[in-house]
Amino acid sequence: MLNPWDLPKTAVIDGKSYDLHTDFRNILQIICWLEREDLPVFIRWQVALGLFYEGSVPEESMPEAMEYLADFIRWGQENGTPGPKLLDWQLDADLIIADVNKAAGTELRAMPYVHWWTFLGWFRAIGPGQLSTLVSVREAVQKGRKLEGWQKDYLKENRRRVLMTKPLTQDERQEKQRLEALLQ
Asked: Is 122 helix (H, G, I), strand (E, B) or coil?
């Protein structure tokens, strides 16, 4: 069990101590790797463990190392029942950065190191603002709630963002153009 009053920088996995890469930028990169659906799960976890632990974790220790990493990312909190995804760390980065900077009272990206749990503390201190507006509209849309007038306007102006539509890759754009040309 992780102690929320500490900022862990090492972990003992199967009796061996490992230094951890705990900067928020590194953890966000790990989350992005874990969410990649284009790769097999075991590859995602191998990359995540390689980014988090200093030195390689033996195969027999991986389950414990994976559990520790997942607990670390969650700040030692239990996960409730999973609901719809309301936040995308990459897609929403500009709003997250702006609101975390406001909560922290400083430019987060200029700091050479910020522990993940410190970042989460600032993230959880975000009050009403751009990010909370986006998330509330996303939640209403995903749960099929009737939208209020301002929510309809927000959705109309920010459709791609609200629906978490990722920009097309160069190959996807070319394929789309090719298919559209066939339809003409």
From this structure: helix
Half-sphere exposure of 73 (CA within 13 A, CB side): 19
Angle at 162 between CA 159 and CA 166, to 5 degrees: 85
Transcribe 123-173 into DSSP letters: HHT--SSHHHHHHHHHHHHHTTPPPPHHHHHHHHHSHHHHTT-PPPPHHHH
CA torsion sign for 166, 87, 100, 21 is negative
User: How far is residue 61's CA from residue 80's CA, in Å, rounded to a whole number?
Assistant: 26
The C-alpha atoms of residue 112 and residue 108 are separated, in whole angstroms, by 9
Q: Is the pLDDT of residue 81 over 70?
A: no
How many CB atoms sit inside 10 A of residue 73's CB?
19
C-alpha distance across the termini of the chain, in Å: 61
CA neighbor of 69 nearest in space, from 88, 84, 47? 47
Is residue 122's pLDDT more than 70? yes
Whether the model clears a pTM of 0.90, i.e. scores above it, the answer is: no
Token match 């301002």: residue?
Answer: 150
